[in-house]
Design a protein that fits this description.
Blueprint lengths: L2 E2 L2 H23 L4 E7 L3 H17 L2 E7 L5 H13 L5 E4 L9 H7 L11 H9 L7 H12 L8 E5 L6 H10 L3 E5 L6 H5 L4 E4 L17 E4 L3 E2 L5 E2 L4 H4 L5 E2 L6 H19 L4
Parallel strand pairs: 1-11, 2-3, 2-4, 5-6, 5-7, 7-8, 8-11
Antiparallel strand pairs: 9-10
Helix pairs in contact: 1-10, 2-10, 6-7, 6-10
Bound molecules: NADPH dihydro-nicotinamide-adenine-dinucleotide phosphate (NDP).
Length: 284
């Protein structure tokens, strides 16, 4: 029987520490961490994410600055806004909610955010630092996964870890963080042969594919830890992960649920990065 790793519980503990540290920063240095969130267009999912990020800011005592641009705003308008926020002392973190409308080039936008305010850790400078292992910010979802693994007390060093998915925001940095902790890491993707067999060799299996019912029981080793990053909708429209939970859970030692697993951690790590960006102002 797998022990459930509760992202809600782990998040709560980390958020209360962030709140305390933010209060101390305010009292000792007069700095209130500030996060600017830019939303372009009316994508309903993005609107929910942005609202949740603002709520999290309130919860930990940060200042949230919200910018809503219309769907047909130009790339130049967006870059100009980022330029202003890059110079604004009250803004420590800048987040542009992705995806952006097709006429705006995502990479150009990411490149324009000052690396010290890039709390998503998508800027090439921060991506490079993560590769080297000497970083200011970690990308939020993989960082959240590391916190969840660590909350179990299970040692990562020497373990066989399999990451399914190689996106720049989840799979690749996830593999790198596990590697930094001395795991033996295999990255799988859509061209991987013998995927089920490779997954079944994992002590820690992280799935970041984006397909419901993808990880089945025969892909999981007895006693493995399974981390489900996927956020999908099943046939009934209900939120679910990549893992066929009912059949996989009994084989695992630890498993994350969806919802209530990795999801809450992503925003918590965004708060942590924003706090860090503000603390960097005092040379911490
Ligand atoms: P992407 O679509 O960018 O990447 C998906 C990856 O899965 C790709 O590397 C792709 O391989 C791989 N893949 C697709 N099909 C297969 C297959 N049949 N076999 C093996 N690998 C396959 O997604 P993201 O990384 O952005 O997100 C992944 C999931 O995580 C999504 O459900 C997303 O919603 C969720 N997510 C959840 C977050 C949270 O806070 N909980 C945060 C971010 C994402 P290839 O590269 O070859 O195409």
């Amino acid at each position: 029987m797998g022990n459930l790793i509760s992202g809600k519980e782990v998040s709560k503990t980390i958020r209360s520490r962030i709140r305390e540290e933010a209060q101390k920063l305010r009292e000792d240095h007069g700095i209130q961490p500030g996060l600017a969130v830019i939303l372009v267009g009316n994508d309903p999912a993005s609107q929910i994410y942005v609202r949740n990020k603002q709520k999290a800011c309130e919860e930990v005592g940060f200042h949230a600055f919200e910018y809503k641009l219309s769907e047909n705003s130009t790339q130049e308008q967006l870059l100009d806004l980022i330029g202003v926020l890059n110079k604004d002392n009250k803004v420590h973190g800048i987040l542009v909610q992705l995806p952006l409308p097709d006429h705006i080039d995502e990479q150009t936008v990411i490149d324009t955010i000052s690396a010290e305010k890039d709390v998503d850790a998508f800027h090439p400078m921060n991506v490079g630092k993560i590769m080297i292992g000497n970083y200011d910010f970690l990308p939020c979802t993989p960082a959240g996964v590391m916190e969840l693994i660590d909350s179990t007390g299970v040692e990562i060093a020497g373990k066989n870890c399999v990451v399914v998915g190689r996106s720049n925001i989840v799979g690749k940095p996830m593999a790198m963080l596990l590697l930094h902790r001395n795991a033996t890491v295999t990255i799988c993707h859509s061209k991987t042969r013998n995927l089920a067999e490779i997954c079944a060799g994992a002590d820690i299996l992280v799935s970041a594919v984006g397909r419901a019912h993808f990880i089945k029981a025969d892909m999981v080793k007895e006693g493995a830890m399974v981390i489900d990053v996927g956020m999908n909708h099943d046939e009934e429209g209900k939120l679910c992960g990549d893992v066929e939970f009912a059949e996989v859970e009994p084989k695992t030692s630890y498993i994350t649920p969806v919802p209530g697993g990795v999801g809450p951690m992503t925003i918590t790590m965004l708060m942590q990065n924003t706090l860090r960006a503000a603390q960097m102002k005092i040379g911490k």
